[in-house]
C-alpha cells in the first residue's frame, strides 16, 4: 500500500533513434555559418568600432550621431550583397529557408556581437514582425510593410506589454480597439516598446482587446499601427537599470484615440493569441540562442581577465574557487547549448506547437543560468566588470530582462511543470 | 585512529553572558533614532521628490539642475539646526558619540532613502574621510579640510582603486608619489572615484606608493590632493551598468605630475595601510547597515506589488513559489540584521581590530544576500522592476557594486576562513 | 501612478531598545551552562565511548547490549545528583526554570554529543511529553506518567504522524478514537514513532480524531496510550536512510481496537491542536538549538580534516573553494545562532503564541542550512564522511529528517510568508 | 588599453556538423535496447520483488538468504540465453560491441532498477575489472579470472581507496607491494572495497605502490589479489549513512604480508595509472548514465506522490513552489541526459583520452544535480521519503557517494577548469 508505484512512463527521451537526437548542422548551412562568422569578424566588428567612435561626444541623444547610420548602411549593403540577409526566416520562400537547428548555430555567433543581427537584418523585434507579416499578412500589408522591412529600409516595434497590468498573464491586456466606421480607434498604454525611439521605426504591431465579450483567449487582436499615426504619444523612454538605450529606446507610449484603417488588423478579430503562437516560439528560442553566445563571451572575458591579473602572487583565476567557477560555467554553457539545439530541432521535427514545452524549458533555463555566468564574470573583473570598458554590464542587463520578457521564468516553469503532470493522466 | 577528533574549541560564541550579545540600542540613542526617522519622512522625502522634479529635463548633465542644491541646502540646514548632523562619528568630541551599535539602527533607516545620508552629513565617502582626518589629521589639515567637511560646505573623494591592477590585493597600488623638494609629485591613474564629478568636491584622499623598497605593507601612503591641483585630469565618468550617475559621478582620473605640499601626507610615509584600518572597518559596516535598509525596502516593494497585481485569477504573491520567496527574504533580512548588529557591537566592545573578522563576515554576507532579495523583487515587478519607476534598479546596481568595493566578497571570505583555521593552531 | 508606494511599515525590528534584542544569557544560568559543558566532557563523552564499545558485536538488535543501560544509568544518576536534570522545563516548579534563551545556549552544547540530552533527562520526545503532562495533565496522569518520566525511570513516545495521509496538514489525521462505555477505542496507523522500540518506553501520547463532525481544528484529541495496551501492534521499524536505529527505533504501529480508560484523554475532547501549541513551539526550537551544535561540530570536523590531509601538495582546506566554504559555514552558523537566540528570547518575552512566526522562521532556516554545512563537511572527508568513523552521516540524516518533522520547511515558509503579508492589511 | 580583448577562440562547439553532435542511438542497438527494457519489466522486476521477499527476516546478515542467489541465477541464465549479457564491453570481441552512446541509452534504464545490471552481468565493479582484464590481461590472467567473470560465475572487487590518505590525489596511494623472490608481498590498508563482502567475490584488482623512487605517476601498479590469499584481513564493513549493505558490503581490508605470484601484476610495474585510464573513463560515465535513470525515477516518484496526496485542499504538487521544482528537475534531467550522451559520443569519436574533459564535465555535473532532485523528491514524500518504502533513500545515498567516488567533484572541476585555461595558451 505504501510502496512507491509511479504511474507514468518515464520514457521522456522518446525514441532514442529519433531524428530529434541528431543535432548536427545540415550540410547546406555550413557555408552560410562560416560566411557569417567571417563577416562578423571582418566587417561587423570593425564597423561597430567605427560606429561607437562616431557616437562619442554626441549630445542629441535621441538621434543617431552623424555618420553612424551611414557606416551601418554600408555594412548592411555588403551583407545583402553577400547573401547574408534575412536568413532568420525558417522554411519560407522569402528567406534562406534555414531550419531552426541551423539557425541556432548561427544565432549563437550573432549573440556575441551587438550589431551583428541588425547588419544582417536578423534583429528583433523585426524578425518576429516580419515572420508574422509573412505568415498572416494580406498582400497589401506585405507590400506596404513587409517589403521595406525585408529590405532593411525601415524598422518596426512590437507593442504588447502594458504598465498597468500583470502581463505575465497575457489575458490581462487592457488597451482597447473599437471599430468606428471603417477605422479602429485605439486607446491605452504600452511600455518597454523596444526600438520605438529609433527614427527609422515606422510600424508597430500592437496587441489590443477588440472583443471583450468573447472567450478569454479570443478577445485580443493584433493591429498594425504606424508610428506617425495621430494620437500615438511617446511619453518617454523606459530605463533598463538606469540606461535608456537612446536613440533606439524602449518607449512608453500612450494611444489616444489613435485611428487606423479597418484593414490594418492582422488575420482577423479575436485572433491575437493565435498570431502570438507564430511569433513567440521562434522569438523565445532566438533569444536563447543568442544568449548562449553572450554566456560564451562572458566566460571568455572571465578567463582572459583571470589569467591576466595577479593578486596575492597568483593569477586571479587560480585563487579560491575561481577555477571551479570557470568549470561550472563551461558545463552549464554546454548543457544550455545542447538544450537549445534540441529545442530548435524539436521545432523543426515536431512543429512549433508540439515543441512548445521544449521552448518553455530553454526559455526558463537559459537566461537565468546565463545571468549567473555573466555575474561571475563581472565579479572577477571588479569595478571594471560593471563599467563601459567591457560588454559585461550590457550583457547582464540584456539577459536579465529576458527573465521576464516573452513570459517570465515562472510562467515557463508552470507550462513545463504542467506538461510533466499531464504525462500522468 | 580514524575516529574524528576535532582539535579546536568549538566555543565560538565566547561567553554567552558577554556584553557582545546585548544588541539593544542604548537609551540615549532612542530620541535621535526617532528623530531621524521622523526627519526622513517629513523633510528628506518631500525634499527628494522636489529635487527629482527639478532635475527633469535638465540637459547639462555634469551640473546640478537649477534649484537642486538649494533645496538640498535648506534640508541640510534644517538637519543641522535640529542636531541631526555628523552623528556617524563614533566616540569623538566632534560628533554625537554614537556607538557603532546605535548607529547601525539609524543607518538601516538611512539606507532606505537615497538623499537621507547626505542631508544629515553622514554620506560616504565624506564619512570615512572625516573620520580619518579627525583621527590622524594635523591641526592644519583639520582646519583646512575637516572643518568645511564637518560643516557640509564641501565634499570629498577617496582615490584608491586603480584600473590597471587587481585591487583586491591592495599591495598592488601603482600610483607613485615622489618627494621632490618640499612637494610630493604624484603620477598614476585611479578610477571609480565616487563623487569626484560633483562640483562641490574639493579634496581627495589619495592612496599612493611612496616607499617602493619598504616591506610590502609599508610602501603606501595617503596624501591629500585638492581636486583643482594642476595635473589632476578627469578622463571621464565610469559607468555603473550603463549609468554615469551624473553629476556626482564615479570618475576616471589621471595624475600627471600633480604637486602637493609635503605636509599634505597623512600620518606619515608608509602608513597608508594603517590609515586604511581606520576607515575600512567602519566604512564596510556602514555599507552593510544601509544595505539592510535597502533589502527591507526591496521586500516591501515585492510584497506591495505582489498583493496589488493579479494573474491567472490570483494576486501574484500567491502564485507558485512567491510566498516562499517572501519568507526566505524575511528570514535572511532578520539574520543579516542580527549579524550586522553583532558586528557593530563587536567594534564597540572589542575595538576595530579584534572585530575585524566580524566585519569581514557581514561584508561577505550582506551585499550578496541583499542582491538576491532585490533581484527577486525585480522579478515580481516584471519590466517595471528594472525601470525608473521603482528604486529597485538603483538598489540593485548599488548593492551589486558593494560585492567588490572595499574588498571583494572573495577576500573577505579568505580573511574569515583563515581566522577559522587560526583557531586550530 | 506607477511610482512604487509600499504600504506597510517596514519597521520589523520593533523597538530597537526592546528586551527582545538582549540576547545575553542570564547571570543565574551561567553556573549551570558551565556545569553542563564540563559534565558532557568529563562524564557523558567517556560514558558514550564505553556505551558504544559495549554495543560492538551485540546481535540481538532490539535489545540494548549487556551493560549499556547500566553505564547510562550511572551517568544519569550522577547528573541527577549534580542537579543537571530536567532543566529543559521552562518556568515551572518542577525544573530549573530556565528561560528559553538560557536553555538555547545549553542546548547547542547538548546537540554536539549524542547521549548528552538523555543523560540529563532532556531528550526528545520525553521533553515535549513531560511539558504537556506538566501543563495539562490531571493529578492522576501526573502521578502515573509524569513522575516516572521526570525521574528518568521510563521513556515515552509521541504518536502523531500517519503513513497514509499528508501530515504536513495536521487536519488530515485519520486515526480514530471512539468512546465506548468508559473507554476510548482507538483504530488507525502511525509511523516514525521515535523511541517506541525502546524497551523502556511505556507510554505514548497519541493524536486521534474524536469529533469528526466538529470544526476542522476541533476534531482532534490527544490520548495517553500505554505501549503494552492490547491491540498496539508494532508492525516494524521504519528506516532512516537505511538505518533502523535499533533498539530505540522509529516504529510503525497499528492500533487495533486499542482500549484505554476515558480519563486517559488530555485536557478534553477536541483540544488536540491546543495541546500541540504547548509542545510544538518549544519542541521545534529545541531541535533548532541542538542543530546549531551539530552544524558547529560538522564545521569543526571539516576544518580538522582539511588541515590534516594533503593532496596536490597542499592541505585539503587550502584547495579550490574549500576555504570559502569554511567561511560561508561560519557565517551561516553565526547567523543561525543569533536567529535561534532571538526566537528563544521572543518566546520568553512575547509568549509562545506571539513568537510563533520567529519559531517558524528558525524552523525553516536552520535544518536546511545545517544540512548544507554537514554535506560539505562530508564532501571534504570523502568516503570517510559517510562512514561510521565520523558522526557526520548520523548528523546528516538526523538533521535532514528535521526538514519535514514538526511541519515541513514549506509549511513554515507559508506561515512566515503569510505573516509578512498580514502586515500589509 | 582597458578594452576587453578575449584571447581564445570561443568556438567550443567544434564543427557543428561534427558527428559528435549526432546523438542518435544506432539502428543496430535498437533491438537490444527494446529487449533490455522489456526484460527489466518482465523478468528483473518480478525477480527483484521475490529476492526482497526472500530476504525478509533473514538474520545471518553476511550471507544471502536461502533462495536469493537461486532466483538471481535463474534470471541471469535467462538473460544469458536471450543474449542480454556483457553488453557493456565496448568495441571488443567478447561483447556486443556497443558504442558508448548506445550503451548510454541502455544504462539509463539499468539505473532505474537495482538488480538489473547484475542480472545482465553489467554491474560495477565487475564491468571495469572485466574491461581491464580484457584489454591488458595476459592469456593466463584471462583464463583464470576474466572467463568466470564473463560467465557470471564469480564476482570481483577493486581495491583502490585508502583510509589514511586523501585519495582525491591518487598519487597518495600508500599500500606497498615489494617483490620478494617470485612473489609480491603486499602491505597496507584499503576501505570501501565494494562487493568484497559478497561470498561470490573471488578476486580484487589492487592498486599498490611498487616503485617509490620512480616519477610520481609511475610508482603505482595494479595487482590481482585473490580474496582468499593468506593475509587478506577483512576488518569489517564500512557503512554508507549507517547502512552496511550486507551481504555485499563495502569492506575495510588490511593486507598483511599478502603474497601473490609475480605474474599477478597487470601490464607491468609502474603502469598502474595507465591502467586506470582504461577503467576510469568508461566507469565514470557508466555511473553518470545510470544516475540519469535514478534521477528520472526520483522525479517520477515526486510527481506520483505529489498528485496522490492532498493538503490544505489541493494536491501537494500544486502547493507553493512544488510545480516549479518539477519543472526544474525535468529541465536538469534533460540537460544531463544530453551532456552524458555527448560525453559518450565523444568517447566513441575522439577516444577516451581526448574525451577526458567531457567525462570530467558529466562526472562533476550529474551526481550533484541528481542528488538535488532526489532530495526534493524525498522532501515531498515527508518521512516516507527516507524510509524503506520507496527507493529514494537508497538512490540518495548511492548518488551522494558518487560525488567523491572515482574522483571528487572538486577534482573533476579542476580538470575541466584547467582544460578551459589551456585553450588560452
TrEMBL record, chains A, B, C, D:
One of its GO terms (cellular component) is cytoplasm. One of its GO terms (biological process) is fatty acid beta-oxidation using acyl-CoA dehydrogenase. Keywords: FAD, Flavoprotein, Oxidoreductase. Residues 157-258 form the Acyl-CoA oxidase/dehydrogenase middle domain. Signal peptide: none annotated. InterPro entries: Acyl-CoA_dehydrogenase (IPR050741), Acyl-CoA_Oxase/DH_mid-dom (IPR006091), Acyl-CoA_Oxase/DH_mid-dom_sf (IPR046373), AcylCo_DH-like_C (IPR036250), AcylCo_DH/oxidase_C (IPR009075), AcylCoA_DH/ox_N (IPR013786), AcylCoA_DH/ox_N_sf (IPR037069), AcylCoA_DH/oxidase_NM_dom_sf (IPR009100). Residues 32-153 form the Acyl-CoA dehydrogenase/oxidase N-terminal domain. Residues 270-418 form the Acyl-CoA dehydrogenase/oxidase C-terminal domain. Its cofactor is FAD. It holds the Pfam family Acyl-CoA_dh_N. GO terms for molecular function: acyl-CoA dehydrogenase activity; flavin adenine dinucleotide binding. Belongs to the acyl-CoA dehydrogenase family. PANTHER family: ACYL-COA DEHYDROGENASE FAMILY MEMBER 11, MEDIUM-CHAIN SPECIFIC ACYL-COA DEHYDROGENASE, MITOCHONDRIAL-RELATED. Homodimer. This is Acyl-CoA dehydrogenase family protein. It comes from Phenylobacterium montanum.
Amino acid at each position: 500500500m505504501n510502496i512507491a508505484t509511479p504511474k507514468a512512463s518515464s520514457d521522456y527521451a522518446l525514441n532514442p533513434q529519433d531524428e530529434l537526437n541528431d543535432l548536427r548542422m545540415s550540410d547546406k548551412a555550413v557555408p552560410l555559418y562560416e560566411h557569417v562568422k567571417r563577416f562578423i569578424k571582418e566587417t561587423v566588428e570593425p564597423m561597430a568600432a567605427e560606429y561607437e567612435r562616431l557616437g562619442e561626444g554626441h549630445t542629441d541623444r535621441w538621434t543617431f550621431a552623424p555618420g553612424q547610420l551611414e557606416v551601418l548602411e554600408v555594412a548592411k549593403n555588403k551583407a545583402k550583397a553577400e547573401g547574408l540577409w534575412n536568413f532568420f526566416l525558417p522554411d519560407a520562400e522569402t528567406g534562406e529557408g534555414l531550419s531552426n537547428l541551423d539557425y541556432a548555430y548561427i544565432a549563437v555567433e550573432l549573440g556575441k556581437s551587438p550589431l551583428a543581427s541588425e547588419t544582417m537584418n536578423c534583429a528583433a523585434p523585426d524578425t518576429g514582425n516580419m515572420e508574422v507579416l509573412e505568415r498572416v499578412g494580406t498582400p497589401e500589408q506585405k507590400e506596404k510593410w513587409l517589403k521595406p522591412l525585408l529590405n532593411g529600409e525601415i524598422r518596426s516595434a512590437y507593442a504588447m506589454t502594458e504598465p498597468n497590468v500583470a502581463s505575465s498573464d497575457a489575458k490581462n491586456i487592457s488597451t482597447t480597439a473599437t471599430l468606428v466606421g471603417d477605422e479602429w480607434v485605439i486607446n491605452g498604454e504600452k511600455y518597454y516598446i523596444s526600438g520605438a525611439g529609433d527614427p527609422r521605426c515606422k510600424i508597430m504591431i500592437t496587441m489590443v482587446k477588440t472583443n471583450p465579450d468573447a472567450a478569454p483567449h479570443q478577445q485580443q487582436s493584433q493591429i498594425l499601427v504606424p508610428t506617425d499615426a495621430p494620437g500615438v504619444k511617446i511619453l518617454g523612454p523606459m530605463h533598463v537599470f538606469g540606461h535608456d538605450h537612446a536613440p533606439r529606446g524602449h518607449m512608453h507610449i500612450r494611444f489616444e484615440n489613435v485611428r487606423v484603417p479597418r484593414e490594418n488588423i492582422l488575420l482577423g478579430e479575436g485572433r491575437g493569441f493565435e498570431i502570438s503562437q507564430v511569433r513567440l516560439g521562434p522569438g523565445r528560442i532566438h533569444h536563447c540562442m543568442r544568449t548562449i553566445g553572450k554566456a560564451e563571451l562572458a566566460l571568455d572575458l572571465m578567463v582572459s581577465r583571470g589569467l591576466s591579473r595577479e593578486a596575492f602572487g597568483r593569477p586571479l583565476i587560480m585563487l579560491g574557487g575561481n577555477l571551479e567557477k570557470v568549470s561550472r560555467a563551461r558545463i552549464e554553457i554546454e548543457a544550455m547549448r545542447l538544450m537549445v539545439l534540441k529545442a530548435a530541432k524539436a521545432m523543426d521535427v515536431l512543429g512549433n506547437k508540439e515543441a512548445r514545452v521544449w521552448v518553455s524549458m530553454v526559455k526558463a533555463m537559459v537566461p537565468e543560468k546565463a545571468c549567473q555566468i555573466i555575474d561571475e564574470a563581472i565579479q572577477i573583473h571588479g569595478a571594471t566588470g560593471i563599467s563601459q570598458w567591457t560588454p559585461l554590464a550590457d550583457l547582464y542587463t540584456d539577459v536579465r530582462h529576458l527573465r521576464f520578457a516573452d513570459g517570465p521564468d515562472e510562467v515557463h516553469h508552470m507550462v513545463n511543470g504542467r506538461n510533466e503532470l499531464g504525462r500522468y493522466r
